[in-house]
Protein: Dimethyl sulfone monooxygenase SfnG
Organism: Acinetobacter oleivorans
Amino acid sequence: MTQLQQPIKFAYWVPNVSGGLVVSNIEQRTDWSYDYNVRLAQAAEKNGFEYALTQIRFTAGYGAENQHESVSFSHALLAKTEKLKVIAAILPGPWKPALAAKQLATIDYLTEGRIAINVVSGWFRGEFDAIGEEWPEHDQRYVRSEEFIRTLKGIWTTDNYSFDGKYYQFQNYTLKPKPLQKPHIEVFQGGSSRAARDMASRVSDWYFTNGNTVEEIQKQVEDIRTKAKANNHHVKIGVNAFIIARDTEEEAKAVLREIIDKANTEAVNAFGDATREAGAASPEQQGNWAKSSFEDLVQYNDGFKTNLIGTPQQIAERIVALKNVGVDLILSGFLHFIEEVEYFGEKVLPLVRQLELQQEKEIEIQAKSA
Ligand SMILES: Cc1cc2nc3c(=O)[nH]c(=O)nc-3n(C[C@H](O)[C@H](O)[C@H](O)COP(=O)(O)O)c2cc1C
């Protein structure tokens, strides 16, 4: 089956940090509590979402005052769901690969193979300083993350594992039991800089990127897939989008306007400063947020730029356009999570599947007549 024939997948951001997914004082019915998140996870798996992504913050950033830890929160959501895979954010530095490999292997057993991880390389220096963690410069953080991913995969798949890296060393180490998932637990990564793309093209199973236009996403996909091919590696692509689906386009656009008009200006500006500091050492200036405006930063992973804002039909067409440039998964955020995940499942997803089917038939007809 070609990639175009695979149904596009959907993930959602777990609101395990307070304040929802937008840095705005607009009313939000999203809540960071466990109870809310369990109901959301159950609604999401009923409504066609295959994955949920938790976030990791050690200190408050962009006004998100409270943050539950990602791995334990992911495990707790897995315990209350049946099919959903939960991707736990992991930050090399605070996490060491030996502990992560062991902890995740156990969770894999406890949840019948439904845990995944998102290795993130960090953007908030203040957070690292506050917890006494070293803050290597931008590209060095990716050297460390790549070693982190290589060692996890090594430990998960090999007995008597040895590794002699700059950041991590292993000698003749055998983890037992190994994870249930084969060949290993899925590894996602987040970031868009050259270092991030190069890492994805060598070691990650999935590349997560900030929201962007179809044209810009296409450039990233082509860059990564070309490099990955040269490395004999396959990597799948996930793109962030803040989805505002409403019965009319006017309603959807009005919601976006209100989110931006009510932005928490101080928190958005502080976030903008932190991201500039984080990306300063990314030599080519192509990292996440390199070109983000104030309005873009109100959704902290540029989710408005993907423009999944409009009617179900408009959104479905734009999702299929992303799929057609090589995107495998949409990572979605919503204003009022539970009710909007349900609206998405009822109104948008069937249209996406219909468009995919139509496209598949057209490809078959073309193939027959060729
Ligand atoms: C989908 C996605 C999820 C992320 N989740 C987190 C997170 O939970 N915690 C965190 O500190 N950073 C997170 N990041 C930010 C990354 O750590 C990284 O700093 C950022 O993407 C900038 O990387 P770049 O300079 O390579 O573009 C995430 C990034 C993306 C794209």
Notes: The radius of gyration is 20 Å. Residues 149 and 312 are 38 Å apart (CA to CA).
